[in-house]
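Supplementary Text 2. Reproducibility record for the structural model of the 249-residue chain.

All settings were left at their defaults, and a single model was retained for analysis rather than an ensemble. We include the record here because the model underlies the residue-level annotations in Supplementary Table 4.
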Amino acid sequence: MRSITKLDLQYAHRFYGFRGEAQYLHGHTGVLTIEVEDSVEPGVNMVFPCNEIQKTAWEVLKNFDHALILREDDPLLPAILGVYEKQGIKDGSPQNKMKGPAFKTELATAYPDCRLVVTKETMTVEGMIKIVYELLRDKLNIAKLTFTSGVNAASEEFETKKTIDRCPLCGIALNENGVCPKCGYRTSKRRRPAKIRRRKNKIAKNGPAKRNIRLCGAVFARIPEAAGRKNEKANKIRENACKTGQNTV
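Retained model, structure tokens:
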């Protein structure tokens, strides 16, 4: 199944070398539709929250919004940079706050400080789809991209192979440690920290009398400080266990 969301982009460009009106500098409102495919996460009954798709995509695509997009061999490019330099805005201005991280791929390079994107190919709707997929393919499980600009529109479907582990509480992707970056949910499949694993292996070699006492610290070290009242109860259990040598595991 797919989750689908849209983003609006305001930008200016021109088709250098094109015979027609589009060879002149002009502006557009572009609409990008992103379709993410995966299984339905039972905890939230959705594939992927659409607002999270927008956040992930917008982090890099905001460099295209209110930006000038020119081909790398366009003679207008050095002229524009010259004007920006005279105005003192080539390297940024206090009002230019909606900036994403600078990026450089095979197809495009973003210069957020002067709101400029330089492309390898003419920035048609087809060209935009290629650029967007290159930027987002490792961040989202994209099945289809559609981009419309004026009367022009294009779409392309992509093969999806991987399934992304998602949080059952808020639906977003878990990080490499199996933890949700939004709500802190942690998958039960996570491994113990290496230090505790080594300690447990070492304890297993010792006699049972030492094992119970030495495990106290290892077990209760994993109880988060934010546990509040549960922590107080856990501390009492730990003290009693250490005094009596009782196995608390």
